[in-house]
Design brief:
The chain has one domain. The radius of gyration is 20 Å and the shape is elongated. Helix content is 72%, strand content 0%. It has 116 residues and is an all-alpha fold. Keywords: Membrane, Transmembrane, Transmembrane helix.
Amino acid sequence: MDDVDPPRRAPFGSSLLVALGWYATVAAAVFVGLVGVPANPNRDCSAAFACLTPQEGFALAAIVGAPVLTAMLLTTLAITAPLARRVPSPVLAGTLSVSVTLGLAVLAGGFWQAAR
């Protein structure tokens, strides 16, 4: 008679897909932003990596940033599981997990800069 519905939980898979969607959206936006900027015809190529095309620059950033991105993805994976248990919406759980991961990455970057 007194049936109480258990609290609704967000599916872990859907929450993780939302989080991965945020990463894909940001990567696509950065790529489109870099490709859409016209090249300066009078650029000086004396500095290292000064004359890379936007596609080459994006590829270089992807290679250098791969360890950071891997760490962020693993952190997002670890954070999404507890959030999906507590938050009823997969969109909210995925977005919160990426937000927390981004905050931790900024904090780690600040510590790294301070230690140098």
